[in-house]
Structure formats: C-alpha cells, structure tokens
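Exercise 7. Predict the joint structure of the components listed below.
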Amino acid sequence: MTDGRLGRREFLGSSALVAGTALAGCAGGSGGTTGGSASSSDTIKIGVLEDRSGNFALVGTPKYNASMLAIEEINANGGIDGKQIETFAPDPQSDNQRYKELTRRAIEQEQVDVLWAGYSSATRETIRPTIDRHDQLYFYTTQYEGGVCDHNTFAVGPTARQQLGMVLPYLVDEFGPRIYTIAADYNFGQLSADWVRVLADENDAEVIGEEFIPLSETSFGSTINRIQEADPDFVMSMLVGANHTSFYEQKASSGLDVPIGTSTAMAQGYEHRRLDPPAMANIYAGVNYMEEIPTERNTSNGGFVDRYFEMFPDAPYLNEEAQTNYFSIYMYKQAVEQAGTTNQEEVKAALESGISYPAPEAPEGSEIKLDPETHHVHHHMWAMRADGDHNVEAVDDRVIEEQFLSNTVDCDLTQEDEETQYTPQDYFEEAG
Amino acid sequence: MVNATNLFFQFLDSFAFIVLSAIGLAIIFGMMDVINLAHGEFIMIGAYGTTLAANAGVPLPVAIAVGVAVTMVVGLILERTIIKRLYERPLDSMVATWAVGLALTQGARIVFGNSLSSIGVPFGAITYGEFSYSMYRVLLSGVAALVLVGAYLVFTRTEFGVRARATIQDADTAQAMGVETDRMYTATFVIGSALAGLTGALYAPTMAIVPGMGSSFLVEAFVAVVTGGSSVLLGTTLAGGTLGSINALFSNLYGTFMGKIALLFVAVLILRFLPGGLSGVVTDLRERMERESV
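Solution:
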C-alpha cells in the first residue's frame, strides 16, 4: 500500500474487519433511565428493555409503548398496592451485546423488581443465563417457538404450537391437506417448521415441501417457482424480518395466489398496512392479538386501541406483542397485590397461584389464564384473514391451551425448579 | 426436474441484482480507491426518494428519477465535505464512510420512522405453464445491461471519461495537462452515488422499505467487486454473469440457501485461484494473445 492504492485482498480483509467491528462495536455507552438509581420501598421498579432502534425497532417500539401505557394507567389509578411504578427503560438497540450489559445493570445496579426484555429468541437466550443466575423475575412477551420451562421466566406470548394450531387446521379444512412450508433459517423458523409437521400429522395433512431461507435473502424468484412446481393446497410461511417481507410483494407480482398461513406476518410487522395491496391477499395469520381483532375490550369506545392511540397518536400500528406486554404488566400487578410484597420469590409463587386477566384478546366475559405449571398463557387465539384490499377480518377463534410443556414434556414449575428449553425433536418422530 | 425457463429467468434476476448492487461501489472503489461503506445507505436513499415520491402521486419512472437525483445530491454534499479530504487514505475513508452510513440509517429512522408504505410491483407476471415470474424483476436485467453499456460509453467514448481516467491514472500529469482533477473526482463520486441510488430506486417496488434495507445488497456488492478484479466494468459484468449463473443454478436445484452458499463458495475459489479476479484472467489472456501475434 506504499503507493496509496489498496489491493483487492486488503480491501476484502479490511471490509471483513469492519463488518466484525460493526457487530462488536455497539457495546458500551449508557442508556437513559428515569427515576432514581436504587429502588426504595415506596416505589416499585420495573425494567423494560425493548428495542426502539436497530433491526427490531419496527416491532419493538409498540412493545415499549404498550408497557408505558400500562404503567401510566396503573400509576394514575394509585399504583400497585399504593406504590408508584418507576421504570428503568433504556433502548437496547436490537443489539444482544447491549442486552447482556443492560440486563446485568438492571439487576445488579438498578435492582429492578421485575424485568420485561427482548424481542427475538436469540436475545432471550442471550440474557436468560444472567436472569437465572440472579433468580430475576422475567417476562418474555414475544410469540415464540415454545418450550421454555424456567422457574424465573414467564413466557406469556403465544407459542408456535398455539399460533400454528389456530391457523393450520382451519386451512386444511378450507383448502386441503397438502402443505408447503417456507421458514426463516434459524432456531425459530426450524422449530416452527417442526411444529407444522407435528400439526400436519395430527390433522391428517402432509408437508409436501419445505424450504429454509437465510434471513439476509431478499430475492424470492426461485422460491416462488419451487412452490409452483410443488403445487400445494396452501403454504405455511414462517418468514421473519424486513428482508423476508419482500417475499409477499414478489409473490403477488408473480401471480402466485395460493393461500398462505402464517404465525409471523401481519400481527407483528403490520405488513398489510405497509405493503401495497394485493401483496397480503389471502394470507391467514394465527395470532392471539392484532389491532383488528373484534373484541369489545379492544375496539369499543375507550377500549385498548383508543387508549393506545390517545397516548401515541403517531404510532403506526398496535401489534401482537404490545398487547402481551400490556396484559402481563397487569398480571404482575395482580400478583404483587396478592402476595402483599415485591419479594420476587413470593411474587413468583403468587403468579403460580392461577392468575387470570381480562386481556383485550379475550371476548367479553372471559379471561386468559396464566398456567402455574409452565409459566405460559392459555391464549384466546384468532385466525385473521387479509383480503385483496388488505382489510383484515376474523374467520375463526377459540381458546388454545399451552400443550407442549404441560402434556408432552410434563414441565411442572410448581413442583420442580427448571431452567430448560425443550424442543419438539425430543418428543415427536415427525419433527426429527 | 430443471425447468429451463425458470432457470433462465432466475439467472436474469440474479444477474441484475448482482450487477446493480455492485456497480456504484465498483466505480467508486475501482476509479477512486475509496471503499464506500455507506454504499448500502446510498441504495437506501435512492429507494426512499423513489418511494416517497411515488407515494406522493408521482408516476414511477419520474419517482425513480427523483430517487437517483436525491442520491446524487447526497453524494455531492458528502464528497465536498468529507470524502475529498480522504483521497489517498483508503482506510480512513472506510471508517469515515462507515460512520456516515450509520448516521444515514439512524437519520432515516428518526425522520421517516421504522418503515415506509411500499408502492407495489408494476407490470404483473409472465406466465408459462404452471409457472410464472415477476415481469418487473426480469426487466431489471435489461436495465442492468443498459447501465453497464452506458457506463462503458461514458468512460471510454466521452471527453469527460478520458479526463476522469487520466485523473485516476496520474492526477499530477493530468493536472499539468489542464484537467481539473478535483472536479473529476467529484464527478466520478457523484456518478457512483447516482448508480447506487438507481439500484435503490429500481428495487424499491419489490422490497420492504426500512432504514436498514441497504445492507441486503452488501454481500452481493462486495463479493462482486472483489471477484470482478481491477477492471471495473468488465469485472462487474463477469462477476454478475458467473456468480449469477451459479446462484440461479443452485437456487433452482437445491433452494435459496444453497444458492447463496454456492455463490460464496465460488467467490472463495476465484479469490484463491485467480488472484487478478475474473477481469484479470481476461486481461492476461488479451496480453498473451497480443504478445503471440507480435
């Protein structure tokens, strides 16, 4: 490089170096915090680590917003057991390294009474060891692959088995038994595809093709051709992230009009609002919540949707995870008031006593139940269909219990302390 | 069973994606020795300009022109304020452009939010038997070819092109001959920016419009520049052709994942066995033929 020109290899090497630094380089720095640094006895300190910048900002921001809505409502109504809530809520910036540091800081320095944190399963698995080392009470609120049986973790979002179990049997009835699976090529997508196989078997259907697609992929021409070649009755899509969103535009412009069931599209990243119709036409989402679900608590005047947009008038959408953050903060309130203390072990015991809550996802007169043994929620699930103009309507709904941990694994956290994630491969031949 | 039409369309799609991803980066690196790590963000700006214009009711071709124009202006401002201080300092230019890229991504997020509503893909589908392919994605390969031919003509057949290449070869001598080298550097950088903007503008209808979208072009862009070798346009064309056909063939046979693996594997082989890159092989061949004919 003496002449100032850069060789090809140096160019490559230095590019790789920068890429590596980019991944590691976002460590350090400090997040914002409101309120004092240590929890005092007349307030309750809640840690909320949700992404407002970086890759997951689109889906993380509603989680943060809905948490703030619940906290503000509770504070305005006298707090929890008369104590006001203060928050420790810096932005983890979709960066797992930062999550690790902020989790440690929330527990060790801020001494939060309870923690909500993380969008992706990778984030959850990054911070769970720290959480378990400190026996920190932790709520994970994203819809996920399922199987976490952990004394300290309350995974209160719906699992793959609940979401896919809502939409897959419906599609088999409507369109036929031949299924083609496309899924993001990582932990969540692979396990979701396993669940599609298990559920197909239980519903006398058959998976005739499967493709796992790297998260970086944005070109879906060959995937679309492969689906056309297999000619399935419907497709199950567990694509994830902004890059994969391009699939829906490209399948529409290629004229691929096969019905698609999904546990990932629409409810989280509101693709039906962002993409030009008819990209999402004929897509069926299995969800516990999205802005459009027709319950009294959700859509009535002064309901959940109204309250959310009153506090965040510029927010683009109220997504699935936002509701989970919202109702789980109320479940925590209930547990603290029942226990009469914020002592974390006693609150966990209260949460394991059979808490239920009238969440926006549940129709008038019903409540959703937190399962004491598995720390999961028996959700009221919805099958939501988007039409050619991207109007979304409910086509089916029912309560689907958490089944994998309770029936298959026999996870019972009221009897035994565990910190394990179970996968379907260990239990089902079809998932192998 | 391989369907030949599928394979052909997949090749065109892949070729277009690789060439258009790489061309702006290749020109700025190949002609100016600046490694523009904000390349992805330039693409993002082109896509944002186009999408915002189209959402405001402007017809798509005009919206694409708007996207290109916005990226040119951003490129011009950056060259005048930052890049011009970093010629002859390739490593410093990398750090600086990387920082610019981060600022542009987060800036777009702050100003425009986490996502823009997309504009939809024009032209519909080509249908053949049980299969179909997006007409627009196929047409993009034609645009990619036109861009290559256009860039070739500009840099070889115009006075500007001769001056620009003279500046790159030997700035001092060019200056002594009356070439305003400063202006040549600026113009070359702006052309590179415009082509990155064009890429974003062209792919905007087919993609989710989010601040980080530029990164999805980077693997293809850097791999194509590295495997292409020192001759900018020839290298980009050969890289697009070679990597595009490998990617299409393996995607077709074994799925998207293997398509990507094969592309990267071939790139590694090229780096290992053809140190001059793909264009180096052609250049060597040409020189040898010239020697033999003498």
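Discussion. The first helix of chain A runs from residue 8 to 24.
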